[in-house]
Amino acid sequence: MHTVVIGGGVIGLTTAYHLAREGATVTLVDARPTGLGASDVNAGWIVPAEAAPVPGPGVVLTSLKWMLRPDSPLYIRPSLNPSFLSFMFGMWRASNAKAQRAGFAGHLALAEHTVEVFDEYRADGMDFEMHNEGLLMAFTRKENLDHHLTHLDLVKRYGLEPTVLVGDDVRTHEPLLSDAVEGGLFFPKERHVDPGALARALHDRLVGLGVDIVENAPVESVEIRNGRVRAIRSGSRTFIGDRFLLAAGAWTGPLSKLFGASLPVRPGKGYSVDVEPFALRSATNLSDAKVAVTPLSRNLRLAGTMEFGGLDEDINQVRVDAILRAPTTYFRGWEPPRTPVRPQAGMRPMTPDGLPVMGRLGGLSNAYVSTGHGMLGVTLAPGSAAAMTDLILRDRQSPLLAPFAPARFSGGRLAHAS
Ligand SMILES: Cc1cc2nc3c(=O)[nH]c(=O)nc-3n(C[C@H](O)[C@H](O)[C@H](O)COP(=O)(O)OP(=O)(O)OC[C@H]3O[C@@H](n4cnc5c(N)ncnc54)[C@H](O)[C@@H]3O)c2cc1C
């Protein structure tokens, strides 16, 4: 069984790894070197407990308000493009408590064994920085903390044991927090990794397993015969296989059309900046400012912003500056960097309902898709890779994939891509 994987981000790399360790022959094709973009610049959090889908009650109203502020953490670039409008309509429809809770439950189930699988990766020789000190959500507004209590029963069902910290309890837990912080939620089982190191370790292990990794080869066309993909092409190169997996992140929207489908995957751009280390006890979510703070051995990573706009990795300095300012409110003794920082951008693959899109692709008997992991690609990668490997190699449809079926976008129920 020869599987060709299109896309070498965290989703393509982990799926290629699960396929190869089960004995499949794998070719992985990427438009550039593997592990760049979102898979490199992300905050590295493995956070099932924070896996609520983006669309939820009040999200549309908040987004509209934030559209007026150039430094807001969420921005939707207005457009009259019909596919954009229908994506936003789909998002509006999904922005309710029932859909968000169902999506959260689907994410939690998919991520149930994620931490153990990351341990397995390391046991199999992958060398990447991983921390297990948990994750703190810090709130300067009590109502934002209260809002997060709604789903704690779900989280507890998966043994994630949150601690609610009110008032000074939060400072006892993390002495570097300022008096502006009114409370927090601590999840002891969450982890974080150095995402660039994870991608490099996956790449190296794939090479060790004999996977053929072809870089700088953007897939441009797909040859379909009798309801099957026969080959994909990049320039003069042709890749023939038995199975084809499309895992091209934010680029999947346009690429899905080559497979006769039209998936509504759009980019949700975010930024990260690495600054001097800061001695936090754990990864910390500056929850009201929507900035992720990740302590790594060589630096502190700040990440944030969700911009719905074009398929590009251009940097908006105004929003980067807002990310850099956010810790001033939350931490005592925080000093903004004195030397220039190098912001990086990455595009999260977003869907209208905020859920991944995983399963068979385009009515073809040997094509599959795994993308749309939004803000959770690292968190959901191991579960997604295992379930997709089951489907690709054994034709076994895991019940975990049910909420994420591509078919939910056919029939116009939710928006289609440009
Ligand atoms: C600022 C930021 C912070 C984040 N923080 C977290 C976090 O803390 N935890 C978490 O779980 N998630 C986080 N995420 C989300 C996570 O990074 C993404 O969900 C994840 O990277 C998506 O992985 P992917 O493999 O689907 O896509 P990508 O990483 O974008 O990979 C897609 C790959 O497809 C390739 N490709 C594109 N077009 C073609 C083509 N034509 N032919 C061949 N290859 C092609 C690209 O070159 C790329 O390598 C964050 C994202 C951002 C931007």
From TrEMBL:
<dbReference type="InterPro" id="IPR006076">
    <property type="entry name" value="FAD-dep_OxRdtase"/>
</dbReference>
<protein>
    <submittedName>
        <fullName>FAD-dependent oxidoreductase</fullName>
    </submittedName>
</protein>
<dbReference type="GO" id="GO:0016491">
    <property type="term" value="F:oxidoreductase activity"/>
</dbReference>
<dbReference type="Pfam" id="PF01266">
    <property type="entry name" value="DAO"/>
</dbReference>
<dbReference type="GO" id="GO:0005737">
    <property type="term" value="C:cytoplasm"/>
</dbReference>
<keyword id="KW-0560">Oxidoreductase</keyword>
<feature type="domain" description="FAD dependent oxidoreductase">
    <location>
        <begin position="3"/>
        <end position="391"/>
    </location>
</feature>
<dbReference type="InterPro" id="IPR036188">
    <property type="entry name" value="FAD/NAD-bd_sf"/>
</dbReference>
